[in-house]
TrEMBL record:
Similarity section: Belongs to the glycosyl hydrolase 51 family.
Protein species of origin: Pedobacter westerhofensis
Subunit text: Homohexamer; trimer of dimers.
The Alpha-L-arabinofuranosidase C-terminal domain, residue ranges: 317-508
One GO process term, biological-process aspect: polysaccharide catabolic process
Keyword Secreted: no
Reactions performed catalytically: Hydrolysis of terminal non-reducing alpha-L-arabinofuranoside residues in alpha-L-arabinosides
Ranges annotated as spanning the membrane: none
EC number: 3.2.1.55
UniProt KW Protease keyword: no
This protein's name: non-reducing end alpha-L-arabinofuranosidase
Gene Ontology MF terms in the entry: alpha-L-arabinofuranosidase activity
Record keywords, A-Z: Carbohydrate metabolism, Glycosidase, Hydrolase, Signal
Length: 517
């Protein structure tokens, strides 16, 4: 009966998808030198934008909030994502944000007009609240400083407030606010999209950015030499990025790029193409990073702080799907989107892309977390997980620690678009080989041959665990009280080393795990 069930599962089709069977193959070499997948690839981002913070993760006046003002229903869903890194306070909002407005007694905090996104910011969610939220969800905090209307001294003071241990003004100020121990914030961004002409800022010229960044770096590193710094790169302007690295590579731990899928129309194929095209900027950035040494030598000791100690990596510290042209967004700047199943397949494709480029992608933070371009939606009555929540959670739950290069032979789903998108990984102890496979073809199931060269003998008596996520159609969505658009089905079977196949349903993503006994 069990064998019958597994076979039946493998041939079940969704009623709204046809099941014309096609063939593909995926090959990996288990004996290859595997590369580390940074756990920071699975980060999130929050910004004072619309209902992302206030009315999203934080609501002092809600019966659903705890004593700190955190929405308990929301935080439980955020915890499910096992977020390793949380970026704050922006985003473009950083250009007007002064951190001292958001510390100390809430009754004393200054209200400010949000010149970037509109509305009034009461600053009741500030540094301490952000740190507390990070601790509750188990995430490392990642703070971005204000280069546009702030100063290097202001940024350095923020470092002292967060990390200072001595008998100094800002460390003592933190203590006076009730936080004896330092927050130990390791990751700091120096500005955000400073090249953007339409934003408030003074560093749109790359040489000016370089000049100002040096000042920020010096004062911040003198406060805490152990900081890991994220500098502004530009995925659309390699020359900007090259000049930044030419001058600042000794102190650049991560170079930030932003990858938003903004489809030109509402078709599914256009969505997938808009994500596939990011292969090129990642390759371009990798070629650029390769020109700079992994280890810095001859760094002048008179800087009084050390140079970076590892190769420069990319920080994709904003990524996601921003479906501007659909006119389906609601809320402020139409950024509250109801994501459907096609978007979930796009997110799975994004995550595969990052895994394949793990040699360069050291961190990535989905923009954003709640309500605004978000996997979680919340209103005064409750919250729910959007369809895109499923792949975000699945990759964090099942991906291995090290990436394995996969060779995929796939039919096209449309001109210039491969049906299958694949990445592969292996766990820390080598006892599981994991394939994350997206069948983006909405019309065809694909019988996929899985080939593993140099498969260790221990696997040959093991099992294949197949977990597949799917939906009734590409437009399927979750809503408040109805989180039933996405289905998950799981099967197990014995490994047959000479004949391993996975039948992939149309418009699905699958985690295939080869497990030792």
């Amino acid at each position: 009966m069990k064998i019958f069930f597994v076979c039946l599962f493998n041939f079940i089709a969704f009623s709204t998808f046809s099941q014309n069977l096609r063939q593909a193959s995926v090959t990996v070499d288990a004996g290859q030198q595997a590369g580390l997948i940074s756990p920071l690839q699975y980060g999130q981002f929050i910004e004072h934008l619309g209902r992302a913070v206030t009315g999203g993760i934080y609501d002092e006046h809600s019966a659903l909030s705890d004593q700190e003002g955190f929405r308990t229903d929301v935080i439980e869903k955020v915890k499910e994502l096992r977020t390793p890194l949380l970026r704050y306070p922006g985003g473009t909002f950083t250009k007007i944000y002064h951190w001292e407005d958001g510390v100390g007694p809430k009754s004393d905090r200054k209200k400010r007009k949000n010149l970037i996104w509109g509305g009034i910011e009461d600053n009741h969610f500030g540094t301490a609240e952000f740190i507390s939220y990070c601790r509750k969800i188990g995430a490392e905090p990642f703070l971005v400083v204000n280069m546009a209307t702030g100063t290097p001294e202001e940024a350095a003071n923020w470092v002292e407030y967060c990390n200072g241990t001595g008998d100094t003004y800002y460390a003592n100020l933190r203590r006076s606010h009730g936080f004896k121990e330092p927050f130990n914030v390791k990751y700091w961004g120096i500005g955000n999209e400073e090249y953007a002409e339409t934003d408030a800022g003074r560093d749109q010229e790359v040489q000016q950015y370089i000049k100002d960044t040096w000042l920020f770096v010096k004062l911040m590193k003198l406060q805490d030499p152990g900081l890991k710094l994220v500098l502004v790169g530009n995925q659309d302007d390699t020359e900007w990025s090259r000049q930044v690295l030419e001058k600042l590579n000794p102190v650049c731990d991560f170079l930030a790029i932003h990858l938003y899928s903004i489809p030109a129309d509402t078709s599914y194929n256009t969505l997938i193409k808009s994500i596939d095209q990011f292969e090129k900027p990642l390759l371009d950035m990798e070629a650029l990073l390769s020109k700079f040494p992994a280890k810095v030598t001859n760094f002048n000791s008179w800087y009084r702080f050390p140079a970076r100690t590892a190769p420069i990596q990319l920080a994709v510290d904003e990524w996601g799907i921003w479906d501007i042209h659909s006119n389906r967004g609601k809320g402020l700047f139409q950024m509250e989107y109801q994501y459907n199943w096609s978007h979930a397949l796009g997110v799975a494709t994004f995550l595969n892309l990052f895994q394949r480029h793990s040699s360069s992608v050291g961190m990535a933070t989905w923009a954003q977390t709640v309500n605004v371009l978000a996997p979680i939606m919340a209103d005064s009555t409750g919250s729910y997980r959007q369809t895109i929540f499923a792949p975000l959670k699945a990759f964090r739950d099942f991906s291995g620690k090290y990436t394995l290069k996969a060779t995929t032979i796939s039919p096209d789903m449309a001109t210039g678009i491969k049906a299958l998108d694949v990445s592969s990984s292996i766990t820390d102890q080598g006892k599981q080989i994991v394939f994350t496979i997206v069948n983006r073809d909405a019309a065809h199931a694909i019988n996929t041959a899985i080939k593993v060269d140099h498969l260790p003998n221990a696997f040959k008596k093991g099992t294949i665990r197949q977990i597949t996520w799917s939906a009734g159609n590409l437009n399927a969505v979750n809503t408040y009280g109805h989180e039933n658009a996405v289905s998950m089905k799981e099967s197990r079977r014995k490994i047959s080393p000479d004949h391993m196949n996975a039948l992939l349903a149309p418009a699905s993503f699958t985690v295939l795990i080869l497990e030792q006994p």
